[in-house]
Design brief:
about 350 residues, mainly beta, six-stranded antiparallel beta sheet, six-stranded mixed beta sheet, 5 helices, about 40% strand, elongated
């Protein structure tokens, strides 16, 4: 773990060596963390300015040597821990900081805290228990599609995405009493309208299970939590004025019977090849992604035909509107919001 030191006014800089040389011990528990931070005598009078996230020390001791010892004993639901999920690991992150001055002044010292755990077998995030974007297909299966937050831990609270940032799109099907099902995104396009019409402006994302945007950009399918859900990690782009809808044909299939028509393939640039999400050893099923099953869809009328009702357990789902903004537009919006907030405060 690296240590970052921020020097403020000259008086505060005197304590820089004391903080930078601090002795920090971290013990990660199943649902909590215990952090012991030993500081030099010079910082003992400033114990109230030591923080784990936004939490003060739960216990403070002055040692016989004159040094101070701050203990932070908190659960991961406290102190603004950030939870992320990467592959087979669940990671909780936070920071120890020394703040001699109140916010918005920057901390004088920051030290990262991280606890990582192997994801339990069969574990599924709570939000993946169906409950967003509910729709029912012709076969009686219940499908879901929703936008996730940046941490992939819950449904997103905003539909505004900065240009170039990822758009995490989750889809799932309820298993109910069916045999194990594999959910696939058979076709997906971005469109400027919530309903596809012959004159709709569309842009192909997935065709015949091939994630075209993984070849053109940095989009990928994330590793599955279980066979009945899938997460498309789509790199954002602008279509039309910036407001777009994602139209997907969702389908389910036998996990043991994948073929060239029923698959989830993405291009792995590190390996310079198309790979099958669910079994890279069968990536030959993706061989058509650069040729015969490559999308040529450009006009809305073609996708209207493609999305016509068909036999089998399938569902056409729509997600949106998703609003794509430039970083500069977002900054201007935030500046305007701050100005309005300041004006409101002055009026009160």
């Amino acid at each position: 773990m690296g240590t970052h030191l921020y020097l403020g006014v000259l008086i505060l800089a005197v304590f820089a060596p004391s903080v930078a040389n601090a002795d920090i011990d971290v013990v990660c528990g199943k649902n909590s963390v215990s952090v012991t931070w030993r500081v030099n005598a010079e910082l003992v009078p400033y114990a109230a300015r030591l923080f784990l996230g936004n939490c003060m020390a739960s216990q403070w001791n002055v040692l016989p040597t004159g040094e101070g010892e701050a203990q932070f004993n908190y659960t991961f639901t406290e102190c603004k821990f950030v939870k992320t999920i990467k592959g087979k690991r669940i990671i909780y992150r936070n920071e120890l900081s020394y703040r001699p001055q109140a916010k918005p002044n920057p901390p004088h010292f920051v030290h990262p805290i991280e606890c990582a755990f192997r994801r339990p077998r069969g574990w599924v995030p709570r939000f993946l228990n169906p409950g967003a974007g509910l729709s029912e297909g012709r076969s009686g299966l219940v499908f879901h599609m929703a936008l996730l937050n940046e941490e992939l831990s819950s449904i997103a609270k905003t539909n505004v995405i900065t240009l170039g940032s990822p758009i995490p799109i989750w889809a799932a099907v309820e298993q109910k009493s069916h045999q194990p099902l594999l959910l696939l995104m058979e076709e997906c396009v971005a469109a400027t309208t919530a309903e596809l019409q012959p004159r709709s402006q569309v842009y192909p994302i997935i065709n015949k299970g091939c994630l075209l945007e993984s070849r053109n950009g940095n989009s990928v399918f994330l590793p599955r939590y279980h066979s009945s859900s899938i997460i498309l990690y789509l790199q954002s782009f602008k279509l039309g004025s910036g407001e777009m809808y994602i139209h997907c044909k969702l389908t389910v299939w036998d996990p043991e019977a994948l073929d060239e028509d029923k698959k989830a393939c993405h291009y792995v640039k590190g390996n310079d090849r198309w790979e099958l999400l669910d079994d890279p050893s069968q990536s030959s099923l993706c061989s058509c992604c650069d040729s015969s099953c490559k999308s040529r869809l450009r006009r809305g009328v073609e996708w209207v035909t493609l999305c016509a009702p068909s036999d089998g357990p399938k569902r056409n789902s729509v997600l949106g509107p998703i609003i794509i903004v430039d970083q500069s537009d977002l900054k201007d919006s935030n500046t305007l919001m701050e100005s309005v907030t300041t004006a409101d405060s002055q009026l009160q």
